[in-house]
Amino acid sequence: MIQARDMNPAELAALLAFHAEAGVEWLLEEEPVDRIAAFAAEKAARQTSRSTASPSASAGGVTAPAAGRSPPSRGPAADQRQQSRPQPSQSSALPAIPDENAVAEARFAAESARSLAELRTAVEGFASCNLKTSARSTITAAGTASSGIMVIGSMPSADDDREGLPFSGRAGLLLDRMLMAIGQTRESVLITTIIPWRPPGDRMPSAPETAICRPFIERQIALVEPRQVLVLGNFAARFFFGETGTIHALRGKWREIGSGDETLPAMATLHPQELLAAPASKALAWMDLLAFSERLPRG
């Protein structure tokens, strides 16, 4: 078997691209390594080394400080050197976990944006969500806001995270064909996702993660003021409709999303990724698209 050390840079790049396309996210050793046992062995070795070094130090005339006696001062120069050394920061290594303060911070950042460009900057600069720490890209809206048509999916896929655009890869190509079937393109509508960052392993976002992303998508809709919204997939349908049914129960019906007097007509259908996994459902999606297109402006 060819080892990585025997490959040139171009071959290594091609191998990594192949793994990424296959969905590989973590590179592992060929043999399992017990890190806990290795740490315990290192700790035991250090203790043994210290215990064997103590008698030799006493024999050389060096004695340990007596109990209760302070060690000798190192002098101002040594103290200054110690203070100048960078101290490890435990908090900087930990991912930010969404909580009530983080949700309030997201709401303030979203409401402060007066345009889609400002909102994009706010989302890209937001650092209080743990999803951002594992994602490569921040996914924001793409297309034309003035069309009055929004297409909203659930969360970025691995292809989206890699390309930095919503609905990339095979699912994006299928969405392009779905839009073309009703006389639209991805450039003529506004395409976005509820969650701006891809969850690790394409898992479902947790309730706290969803809560922290909600202000951003709600502000996005308020700024665009679409005439109608196409909701894609199970997660997105439940998010907007507040119901727990599957996409097969929620699809194909016009509903109102929003609150108070500011509501918008929306229809849910299957996500392109779901259609790739179950091609037989394309007939259902086609029926939904026909019903959605009936309200599109003609001409």
UniProtKB/TrEMBL annotation:
Region (Disordered): 42-97
Reaction it catalyzes: Hydrolyzes single-stranded DNA or mismatched double-stranded DNA and polynucleotides, releasing free uracil
A Pfam cross-reference name: UDG
InterPro entries: UDG_Type-4/5, Ura-DNA_glyco_family4, Uracil-DNA_glycosylase-like, Uracil-DNA_glycosylase-like_sf
First-level EC class: hydrolase
Gene3D superfamilies referenced in this protein's UniProt entry, alphabetically: Uracil-DNA glycosylase-like domain
Coiled coil residues, start to end: none
Keywords, alphabetical: 4Fe-4S, DNA damage, DNA repair, Hydrolase, Iron, Iron-sulfur, Metal-binding
Keyword Ligase in record: no
Domain Uracil-DNA glycosylase-like: 140-290
The EC number(s) this enzyme carries: 3.2.2.27
Keyword Secreted applies: no
Ranges of Low complexity composition bias in the record: 42-68, 76-96
Similarity comment: family membership: Belongs to the uracil-DNA glycosylase (UDG) superfamily. Type 4 (UDGa) family.
Name of the protein described by the UniProt record: Type-4 uracil-DNA glycosylase
Species of provenance: Rhizobium wuzhouense
